[in-house]
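Carbohydrate ABC transporter permease: structure tokens wanted.
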Amino acid sequence: MGALSVRKIMTKTVLTIIFTGLGIVMIAPFLWMLSASFKLQSEIFKVPIEWIPHVIHFDSYLEVWAGKHPFYEYYWNSIKITCLTVLGTLVTSSMAGFAFAKLNFKGKEALFLIYLSTMIIPTQILLVPRFILFDKLHLVNTHAAIILPGLFSVLGTFIMRQFFSTLPNELLEASKVDGASIFRTYLQICLPLTKPALVSLLILSFTWHWNEYEGPLIFLRTNSLYTLPLALTNFVDENTTNYTAIMAASVSSLLPLIILVAFFQRWFVEGIASSGVKG
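Answer:
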């Protein structure tokens, strides 16, 4: 074995150790939060840390899910808003991405650059005009005020456009020869090939809208309409020193995201890698 091979093995080993250590450091707070949610208040700050409680207590989760303000109502609000928004984002972004990547029309590149440039506009600047508009339309204090702005995504359009650009143009030519319309070509031929990009967009969009705090804070006034981030903030304010209950509420709010990423991880990595290949 040559010196170069030994050096490569040593470098790879060192990098593996470093990144493993960084991974442990990053996941440790979540593991502590999960452990603390099953403890009594008197056990939470024991030193050294008792990562696995001797006795598992579910009192904190009962308080979160069956207490004064049960979380299942806020869970349903977040699920409804997030799923409708993500579905709309996938539809509009995939259609716009296909048009910008595969259709030829006058001013396509200029229009795409203008659309892409809107990403530099801070969302906070649009809050006041959006509030005035939704107030005129009587949409304030409704879930529609949160769902409608999220149906369109500049980042989603960019990701889908980049992925559609990697597909060979021969697919469109062959489908045109077979008599397929543009919409049928998009729906039945090109869209199934963009699964990694769709999954990447799904995870990014779901994470963003599931954790969105600013929009619901501005537009929702009734407690029964609150989403999970708002409910979690109120719960923390009401249970300032009840750390086990706060940890249980935090674990409950993160669980859907963890399941989603774990289930779609392979396609997510592939989609992120592919979105910057060409364009």
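Residues 124 and 214 are 9 Å apart (CA to CA). The chain has a mean pLDDT of 85.

Cheers.
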